[in-house]
Amino acid sequence: MKRADVLAILAAHQERLKALGVKSLDLFGSVARDDINSGCTGMIWLWFWATSENK
In the predicted model, is pLDDT for residue 52 greater than 70? Predict the structure, then answer.
């Protein structure tokens, strides 16, 4: 899997992520560097808007 693959998956789920209150996200580690192999882990940091529904 490449960084572009991860971004495509996230883009495909963009509306659902927004509906869950995700404000933005950041990629870290091997995913961000596009250096993914079977022994690597990638991280995604999600930022949420605080709403009356998720407080």
Answer: no
